[in-house]
Amino acid sequence: xxxxxxxxxxxxxxxxxxxxxxxxxxxxxxxxxxxxxxxxxxxxxxxxxxxxxxxxxxxxxxxxxxxxxxxxxxxxxxxxxxxxxxxxxxxxxxxxxxxxxxxxxxxxxxxxxxxxxxxxxxxxxxxxxxxxxxxxxxxxxxxxxxxxxxxxxxxxxxxxxxxxxxxxxxxxxxxxxxxxxxxxxxxxxxxxxxxxxxxxxxxxxxxxxxxxxxxxxxxxxxxxxxxxxxxxxxxxxxxxxxxxxxxxxxxxxxxxxxxxxxxxxxxxxxxxxxxxxxxxxxxxxxxxxxxxxxxxxxxxxxxxxxxxxxxxxxxxxxxxxxxxxxxxxxxxxxxxxxxxxxxxxxxxxxxxxxxxxxxxxxxxxxxxxxxxxxxxxxxxxxxxxxxxxxxxxxxxxxxxxxxxxxxxxxxxxxxxxxxxxxxxxxxxxxxxxxxxxxxxxxxxxxxxxxxxxxxxxxxxxxxxxxxxxxxxxxxxxxxxxxxxxxxxxxxxxxxxxxxxxxxxxxxxxxxxxxxxxxxxxxxxxxxxxxxxxxxxxxxxxxxxxxxxxxxxxxxxxxxxxxxxxxxxxxxxxxxxxxxxxxxxxxxxxxxxxxxxxxxxxxxxxxxxxxxxxxxxxxxxxxxxxxxxxxxxxxxxxxxxxxxxx
Amino acid sequence: xxxxxxxxxxxxxxxxxxxxxxxxxxxxxxxxxxxxxxxxxxxxxxxxxxxxxxxxxxxxxxxxxxxxxxx
Lengths: 645, 71
Prior knowledge:
The complex is a heterodimer. Chain A is α+β, with helices and mostly antiparallel strands. Chain A folds into four domains: 10-140 and 248-314 and 591-642, no CATH class; 168-231, Calcium-transporting ATPase, cytoplasmic transduction domain A, CATH 2.70.150; 332-352 and 473-568, 3-Layer(aba) Sandwich (Rossmann fold), CATH 3.40.50.1000; 357-469, Calcium-transporting ATPase, cytoplasmic domain N (3-Layer(aba) Sandwich). In chain A, strand 1 and strand 2 form a beta hairpin. In chain A, helix 1 runs antiparallel to helix 2 (48-66) and helix 11 runs antiparallel to helix 22 (578-613). By secondary structure, chain B is of the alpha+beta class. Chain B has a single domain, classed as CATH 3.30.70.100. Chain B is 31% helix and 38% strand. In chain B, strand 2 (30-36) and strand 3 (41-46) form a beta hairpin. The N and C termini of chain B lie close together (11 Å). Classes of the chains: A alpha+beta, B alpha+beta.
């Protein structure tokens, strides 16, 4: 992200340039209009040829000075056969201007005043359109400018301020209350809350303490923070977000394909039609009329409206999404979303917080001894449940474990003091023919509370059970209720067994659940569901990557500070499931906008070009109509912001 | 394969973007090109040994300015 915040932005420069041209063209065009009106009213101020001469002189700077860029770029198109919009305007205005010159020598109507007016309206249109386009990209530009410029770091026990570019990984940054955190890092000293709304859309500041991750460009609220920089430059959270949005712009929404194809052949086709129109009118009417009508055809055609219809809507949508922590990675998702019938949620980390805690345990031995045994084995695993058990045990000295083994999707085993210990779920017990007898009732009770229940076995005999639960996120129920109301088939997918899954799905009102699914089988389950319609899958971007890819729309839930997510068509940087609802609403609203825009752009050209060919539209009105049509498309896209999502 | 992002000045119309896409796509070693008028950027996926100069020349020959290149 090479952006210098002090430099005038691209868009601002563009607007400034068009404004200068705008003032220039009208300075000369207004006198022309006045002269022409006086002439039309029948007052003869000058001799006709002097009048033409004056207009030619006034129109000259309009076409060749203020319109120079347009003329140049348009003519370049003729030389390289890469025609663009400017080619049409250049040809139209030049031909019109030259009729003025030619009228000295032949009996021909003088369109030079018209040429000036066409250029004036063209530039006015461009100015308004550029401004509107600037509005469409405002959120993205805000993100670009969000990054901090300086950082205060600790060097040799002294605070010094350095430009952000010189900041290195490992530097200790000092952030005072109210200041921006220069880059992503981890707190090494201090406590505060941090306002992350500009990046995740989360409006309530997050409490942070030693060991918490912080995101660059967010604002420290009340305490002084010492933060060790962990990511800089292109690797920061902010850079990733900007990157995602920029790359989304380069993906295509399928509905746009047709418009793109037309845009590609549009200008050459119009040139051809204009020539044909000219010849026919010349043959069947007269040369003067033929010129006027051909010019109208050239300037009425508007490939811009077609080309801007989708990207502008997508851009506004991206900006709206980014503000709410919804990052649309693939434009296609916007179109596909409409067809989604089934929404599958992963349980852990998606519906639930992803932080399991021990809720209840039961053991035949003394609890302390029991926990010592269990925690010593669990200590060797990285699984979130294992971590929860170790944390709960508060054990400092762990026992020696031999023959430790991870039994994927089922549990763990190991030997302590020659005793064979096995900790795992029902599947594991069944596999090893372990009878749960008197534990059965207790296990059922745990499961009905939605606990993931681990059974501890010593030398093939159950000695206790541990109930671990992962709290449901605050907004999960609300979001799922909403989706149910909207008629979606909602399904939860989990590695938990039936009883536990049932308890949790009831708690969040999800309609169906699929239990006992190993992580690697999630994608297959989604594939099965796809037989009966389009499926969206919501899961975390790391473990659920295959499922996200398999689904028609994959929505990845970001976990805190890491969104370097490669899978998922849409990424939610805020953990809440309300984001899913918003993403669906936003996609639908955006797609509707795109359809409106394309309909308008197609309709405009289909209606107006024949009208121009048949001579019903004066060239100046043709130009005004053209300018209005592309402005309408951009402004209509901007109206998306009024949608409540 | 690598990704190149080029900031382009002077584009103001969808047909400009599609012209650049067409022209750059014709170069050797280009896998995909996508030009956005709204962010004034071309995102190009190309072979590692692609000549950046060649891309630059192609874009300027069409009448647009190459302002910044990130790889």
